[in-house]
Design goal:
This protein is an alpha/beta fold. Helices cover 35% and strands 23% of the residues. The termini are close together. Glutamine hydroxamate binds next to strand 6. InterPro entries: GATase_2_dom, GFAT, GFAT_N, GlmS/AgaS_SIS, GlmS/FrlB_SIS, Ntn_hydrolases_N, SIS_dom, SIS_dom_sf. It is found in: Cytoplasm.
């Protein structure tokens, strides 16, 4: 999604803006731009890569400026629509604005501003912000006031950063519904939508809250909350390492992140293993109290996180015996549901900023839900801050748009939740607790061994490169893994893929099966294995090509039309974590063969901060 970076300093900030924008590239974007102040507002914009913008910005220098990577929501991908947007005119810009989010009442504001004599040069919703700030600046001659008056007229979601020609020593920023943070330097300050954009300059950050407006100079920062009172926000020292944002020896971030999974998992379970017990406090100080009050769980999530939630339903119901439902966040928030104040709302979001999930949580809270738990990979992000409990996965920065290590560590977190709830509910014997701990200890090694299957999977991928469709089958707790496999394949290789519970095959999708339809089967050695084998026969009988991920002890043999890869050993209840590794690798290698942009698949973006 869009990215913002801004800087105000006593040195040339153009290299900081460019570096910041390159760090934001991973979020996915289609155009980029910067605006800086000298005797005038100077603006450079380019469609495509930040490298092109950098080339165009050669020779530009300033002590204050804002930059943006745009992922278009309103208006096509053109230089005219790229941010920053300016006002009152293109030739004589006095205000420059960058914006993430969507202004829902932009049509109404556009009509009003047109009547006031403002001309529009883009199709974006953002341009109304530039004109509104200019309009109010004319009246107040105070940039902070002008921004405050502007946002009081906006509906929708935004993170904005604004500079004004007449105020070369001030930048004003604001957020509602979209992430924004301030980076604190020594005699210089920064703003960004993502900490990666300011890390080369500072690690000291303040995360703004919804409704906050802040005024930045090189000497200091003043923050106002939604009631417009001056407010102190906590300073954090970011622990995101620059190395985690580099590719190192890998060709793609997705490849790097797939291979980082053993480390990500062991970091996520470190505290648990050190304690040698499932401790309720891992979820927060209030966890024991909240867990003792709940009678069910409602998981709200989107995309890959939703599939983590679907997997968790099996664990929560079988291990903790607690009724669990899982809903797509963007659906839940718009339907009339029946609230249950005794239900624990669990949100899952890698970034902690996923707008659909954040809004679903707010909706649940409005309905009277008071118990919420966030499972999240980014410290201090919006969703954990809005939740009563939090479990941080420790996957490290995930840059590839297709989520991999965030997913497996979410599964770990959800499994730990299921066992912890079972313990709280008196359903866990000491022997069973030790057995689950031992499963967790083993899973890191098993994932490493699954990664070693890569050469065989790369060979298989050759049979997918020329296909237009694929089916993924799984049963029980492995059905969500089949769904995740299909999602991975479609999002990065653009091969249309669908997942079905294997038992559903004969109720429709079998009609699609012929020799051109690869069918991937997740077939671990569990109670459903014999059923899955029968479902596979149905495919084989129709000439379908089967690609089966089985366990070492599944007694499967490859035969004509049946390809088999054995994951090294069965890891019991944690088997979904092991079985997702091969489907991630399959998608990755199929995408390489198709020559797609693996880390930035078309039309997609990381951290989905728009609706
Ligand atoms: N609505 C603005 C910004 C889009 C955005 O935040 N994308 O993530 C535009 O279309 O330019």
């Amino acid at each position: 999604m869009c990215g913002i970076v801004g800087a105000i300093a006593q040195r040339n900030i153009v290299p900081i803006l460019i570096e910041g924008l390159s760090r934001l590239e991973y979020r996915g974007y289609d155009s980029a731009g910067i605006a800086v102040l000298n005797q005038q507002i100077e603006r450079v914009r380019a469609v495509g890569r930040v490298a092109e913008l950098e080339r165009k910005a050669q020779g530009l220098s300033s002590f204050i400026g804002i930059g943006h990577t745009r992922w278009a929501t309103h208006g096509g991908v053109t230089e005219q629509n790229a941010h920053p947007h300016v006002s009152p005119t293109q030739d004589n810009p006095q205000i420059a604005v960058v914006h993430n989010g969507i202004i829902e009442n932009h049509d109404e504001q556009r009509d009003r501003l047109t009547a006031l004599g403002y001309a529009f040069h883009s199709q974006t919703d953002t341009e109304v912000i530039a004109h509104l700030v200019h309009y109010y600046y004319q009246q107040t001659r105070d940039l902070l006031q002008a921004v405050k008056l502007t946002i009081s007229e906006l509906t929708g979601a935004y993170a904005i950063s604004v500079i004004a020609l007449e105020n070369p020593t001030q930048m004003v920023v604001a957020r509602l519904g979209c992430p924004l943070l301030i980076g604190l330097g020594d005699g210089e300050n920064f703003v960004a939508s993502d900490v990666s954009a300011v890390l080369s300059a500072t690690r000291r950050v303040i995360y703004l809250e919804d409704g906050d407006v802040a005024s930045l100079t090189s000497a200091g920062v003043v923050i106002y909350d939604k009631t417009l009172q001056v407010v102190e926000r906590k300073e954090h020292l970011s622990d995101v390492s620059l190395a985690s944002l580099e590719l190192g020896p890998y060709n793609h971030f997705m490849q790097k992140e797939i291979h980082e999974q053993p480390r990500a998992i062991s970091d996520t379970i470190e505290a648990l293993i050190d304690d040698g017990a499932f401790r309720t406090e891992l979820f927060g100080v209030e966890a024991a109290d909240i867990f003792s009050q709940i009678d069910s769980v409602l998981i709200l999530a989107a995309g890959t996180s939703y599939y983590a939630g679907l997997t968790a339903k099996y664990w929560l119901e079988s291990i903790a015996r607690i009724p669990t439902s899982v809903e797509i966040a963007s659906e839940y928030r718009y339907r009339e549901s029946v609230p249950n104040p005794k239900q624990l709302i669990v949100t899952i979001s890698q970034s902690g900023e996923t707008l659909d999930t954040m809004e679903a949580l707010k909706h649940a809270q409005k309905l009277g839900h008071t118990h919420s738990l966030a499972i999240c990979n980014v410290q201090e992000s919006a969703i954990p801050r809005a939740s009563s409990l939090v479990f941080y996965t420790r996957a490290g920065a995930e840059i590839g748009v297709a989520s991999t290590k965030a997913f497996t560590t979410q599964l770990i977190a959800l499994f730990v939740l299921a066992v912890t709830l079972a313990k709280e509910r008196g359903l866990l014997s000491p022997a069973q607790e030790l057995a689950y701990l031992s499963d967790l200890r083993q899973v890191t090694g098993s994932v490493q061994i699954a990664l070693n299957l890569e050469p065989q999977i790369r060979e298989w991928a050759k049979q997918f490169g020329d296909k237009e469709h694929a089916l993924f089958l799984g049963r029980g707790v492995h059905f969500p893994i089949a769904m995740e496999g299909a999602l991975k394949l479609k999002e990065i290789s653009y091969i249309h893929a669908e997942a079905y519970p294997a038992g559903e095959l004969k109720h429709g999708p079998l009609a699609l099966v012929d020799s051109n339809m690869p069918v991937v089967v997740i077939a671990p050695n569990d109670v459903l294995l014999e059923k899955v084998k029968s479902n596979m026969q149905e495919v084989k009988a129709r000439g379908g090509q089967l690609f089966v991920f089985a366990d070492a002890d599944s007694h499967f043999n490859a035969s004509e039309g049946v390809h088999v890869i054995r994951t090294p050993r069965h890891v019991g209840v944690l088997s979904p974590i092991l079985h997702v590794i091969p489907v991630q690798l399959l998608a990755y290698h199929a995408a390489l063969l198709k020559g797609t942009d693996v880390d930035k698949p078309r039309n997609l973006a990381k951290s989905v901060t728009v609706e």
